[in-house]
Design goal:
8-stranded parallel beta barrel, elongated
């Protein structure tokens, strides 16, 4: 494998069509698309300072690398790419990528990041930005710290474990999402989704978990959660009190207490939902 070490690259397409190369301690400065159409590239301790660094590439590995904020739209249309121990300070990274792995990655400006990707694995990732993970499919996540609204809109086949998410309107328009042992805070959680499951989670949400088909909560806490489950079919085992529930359209809800139950007979068939409070009101 060819090796490039401690070099400074400028100009458009500086290493266009590069292949079978190890690149160490190099800086990619001004100049778009330096590694466009590259193949079989290992990058170690490299700096990226300009737009579109890795597009239409395959088999790319990065470790201890840094994408500055000016390296916008950094990785698009790329297959089989791994990031480890990296900082990505640029927005709009990762579009329509396949077989993507991020481990120990920090993304402080992750607006519009991770869109339309498939076969994604995230482990120990921190991200701050709106619309993270939109329209992604086949996603496995362990220990994600997300601060940004509209997370995972339109996603499918997602499993999230041991994570913390501060995200309004998360999991809208999703299919087949399961979240384990996580904390989620954000208004209007999960609307218009199908097969949405939370296990051992703590959730805070105004008017959350509405318009969901086949919603499941297993041993979950709902704190400061009001007007929940409107027009949802739900099987919920809640281990604390719920502030209020409004017009679910079917299923079973079991909680310690429910502060207010709103069931409007002119809007839903109240006989289709069973509500159980373990403590008397």
């Amino acid at each position: 494998m060819k090796e490039l070490k401690q070099q400074f690259f400028t100009g458009e397409r500086a290493l266009f069509f590069a292949a079978d190369t190890r690149i160490c301690d190099c800086t990619f400065a001004d100049g778009e698309s330096p590694l466009k159409e590259s193949r079989n590239i290992d990058l170690y301790s490299c700096l990226f300072k300009w737009k579109y660094p890795i597009w239409y590439s395959q088999n790319i590995s990065l470790e201890n690398c840094t994408f500055f904020e000016t390296a916008r739209a950094g990785v698009w249309y790329t297959r089989s790419i791994k990031f480890k121990n990296c900082t990505i300070a640029a927005p709009k990274t990762f579009r329509r990528c396949e077989n993507l792995s991020l481990e120990n990655v920090t993304m402080p400006h992750a607006a519009e990041t991770l869109w339309g990707c498939e076969k994604v694995k995230l482990e120990n990732v921190s991200a701050c930005g709106d619309y993270f993970g939109m329209n992604c499919k086949e996603v496995e996540i362990e220990n994600l710290d997300l601060d940004g609204n509209y997370g995972f809109d339109g996603g499918e086949n997602i499993v999230i474990k041991n994570s913390r998410m501060l995200t309004k309107d998360a999991f809208w328009n999703c299919k087949n999402v399961t979240v384990y042992n996580s904390f989620i805070s954000g208004e209007y959680l999960g609307w218009n989704s199908e097969n949405l499951t939370f296990v051992n989670c703590t959730i805070e949400s105004l008017q959350g978990l509405c318009y969901v088909k086949n919603l499941k909560l297993v041993n979950c806490k709902l704190i400061n959660t009001t007007l929940a489950f409107e027009y949802s079919t739900v099987e919920a085992d809640i281990c604390n009190a719920v502030d209020s529930v409004k017009n679910p359209i079917g299923g079973r809800i079991c909680a310690e207490q429910i502060g207010e139950i709103i069931m409007e007979e002119d809007k839903v068939d109240v006989t289709k939902t069973k509500i159980i409070c373990r403590k008397k009101q």
